[in-house]
Amino acid sequence: MECVDISENRWAVLLEPEPEPEPEPEPERSAEQERGAGAGDVGDNLHMMMKALLLLLPAAAAGHRRRLERAPALGAPSPPPSVDPAQWFACRPGSGPCDPKPSWAPTWAMNESTSLQVCNFSGWQAPASIHRWGLIDFDWENMRGDHVAEGWEKVSPMDCGERMTKQVEMMRAAYPQSKSKYMVYRNFVKALPWLTVVREKVTDPDYSGWFLNFSAAVQRNHSLSHVPVCDDAYDPPLCSHLYHDQMLTPKSSDCGGRCGVGSVPVGEYLFDFRAANVSVKGQTMSEWFVEEYMLGESGAGNPHIVGYYIDDGWAADVKSNAHGPSECDKNWQADTGMSASDVDDEIAAFRWVADKAYAAMLKRGKFNWNQFLNVSTAPVCRHAVV
């Protein structure tokens, strides 16, 4: 997470200062008082910390009169930069255009300004345990199920998406008057077949061009691949020529024998954004990605879901893959047979589709977790919401 340099702020919320009393000479202290000074110092330090918090948190200092003034040494605030939509990625890698604004009004209520990401492997999250949080995101691994409890990874076909939506509906039903806002998970890079909206396309051969494929050499000889092409838990083995790895994939031991996502092996597939304008059955890949994957009823199209925690990107993670898909097997390029120019084209296409998705969501009043602030290693967007 990036820290914000307050010297870059062009505006400051100032509190009316209180007159400082004249310092009084300190009386001499006895030896006993010296020995007990530590406790007094703790109290003094705590008092100073509380005063600092009052200065930093305007909501906690509601009793003071606020004056909104320019920071005198920095001059007038600069206007938000004019960002070329084609260049937004250079400003906020993986997080959309600069200067995004959520559709809901800001608040000084501290409980409404909290956020929580829920990932309860063992079952449904009890609404009473989290209903006081302001922004609640339900992760894809919520209600996944561990070795003793049932979850979406143990059913066939897997129904992760439906369970995220149901968890939101449980919250709304239990606390219909709550001001809490709810998000769910979406991945911008990985086509995860435990989401029904993805599985419907991954398992249909007509849509194979929308996803990265194993190289022709790997398709002829599976032993050349660095990751399994087939799921040997099935007899005969269940195979797919669409590239997939198993970085965070449910294992057969988790699923109770065999993991079921339809007619393909369970795995993390990859969208091929170079096919953004390839039309199948009257719909292009980018149209499907925006209107169904992002804004469909199982996601942000649900009136009770305000947006997503959006995960992963192309050339967005210097730790796992600086010039490729984040959090993928390190041999992904060899297994797909992509050239350097192919990768460059993929990155450019990804940015174009992602830009369309973010713009469409903002236009419809939706927002995303990663748009609150820039958490990448790239230069911080000065106008990010923090």
Shape: globular
Profile the largest sheet: 5 strands, parallel
Low-confidence stretches: 1-21, 32-90, 374-386
Mean pLDDT: 78
> Strand-and-helix sequence, N→C?
EHHEHEHEHEEHHEEEHEEEHEHHE
Summary, kept brief:
With 386 residues, the protein is α/β, with parallel strands linked by helices. It contains 11 helices and 14 strands.
Offer a few descriptive terms:
disordered N terminus, alpha/beta, disordered C terminus, 11 helices, three-stranded antiparallel beta sheet, 27% helix, 386 residues, 12% strand
Give a description of the structure.
Helix 9 (285-294) crosses helix 11 (340-363). The model is unreliable at 1-21, 32-90 and 374-386 (pLDDT under 50). Strands 3-4-5-13-14 form a 5-stranded parallel β-sheet, with helices on one face. It has a 3-stranded antiparallel β-sheet with strand order 6-10-9. With 386 residues, the chain is of the alpha/beta class. The longest helix is centred in the C-terminal third of the chain and has 24 residues, at 340-363. It contains 11 helices and 14 strands. Helix 5 (160-174) links the parallel strand 4 and strand 5 (181-187).
